[in-house]
Known about the structure:
By secondary structure, the protein is of the alpha/beta class. Helices cover about 35% and strands about 25% of the residues.
Amino acid sequence: MNHSVISLSGVQKSFETFRFGPFDLQIEPGVVAAFVGPNGSGKTTLFHMLMNVIEPDRGEIRIFGSEYGQNEVGIKRRIGYVADSTYIEEADSRIQEVASFHRHWFPSWSEAKWTELCDKFELNPKAKVKQLSKGMKRRLAFCLTLAQMPDLLILDEPSSGLDPYIWRFMMNEIQDFMKNGDKTVLIATHTIEEVRRLADYVAFMYNGKLLNYKEKDTLMDEWKALWIETPHAAELRLPGVVESEQGALTRLITRDVVATEQALRASGITALKRQGVELDEILHHMIADSKRGGEASGR
Ligand SMILES: Nc1ncnc2c1ncn2[C@@H]1O[C@H](COP(=O)(O)OP(=O)(O)OP(=O)(O)O)[C@@H](O)[C@H]1O
């Protein structure tokens, strides 16, 4: 039996100048999965397919164990989706009218949560949506989504345009949402701090491909920077090393610190210093490796 909240197998989508996939991924319930990757790597395309905004050319997508063809309304009522584009309201609606629509459409809508969020995110229900600033529209989209009380949150760069004060509230709300352990969040972000604070798993994407999907803590344990005195470290052909930088000391970046340190010990070399590697640097090396057609992504 498949317990994944999200399951993609062999998913492919081709546009004129972009090919997504083949993409395979299973996401278990109760986790925050952060999707990171440069512009145009396919994060929004993936989320559009998860929301059935676009259909894949090939492959299978299951959400809560079902395909959209079986139960589209049932699936969508359990998902809170903040799209990448700013919330656009062409009509002359006020916030409270938009909320009424959501209340009607989502049976799990919580009026108490909505009131609490409007207060916290300083949204005036009487304000006209089209007159809101970009950041205020973003706040609205997020609050409407959370008040739906969904089981799965799909957030496409939700903090884009938010001020740092409200950003903190958003982080707290997402952490709060995860508190009971049965909810799931997918978040696409360019903000490493969001990954650091929220993510249990990190999905690295590049050029329509999933380079790596791994538990964040495992990733941070495996990737390290090591400093050694030995010059010309490349000649040692150390396992796991993806970069070596020559200075007063040699700085090695490894994706497999255990294997690298073992090989260093075998060569009688001691690492003088060991440090964590930032997620953006890991992504940089994964992309470089993917361009070389290599295996640094370590899937
Ligand atoms: N409807 C479409 N028609 C043609 N090309 C498309 C369409 N939708 C997306 N693309 C292309 O797919 C590629 C991936 O875009 P996508 O928006 O998924 O990337 P992203 O990772 O979300 O980028 P960003 O970080 O900039 O938001 C881009 O090259 C884009 O031009």
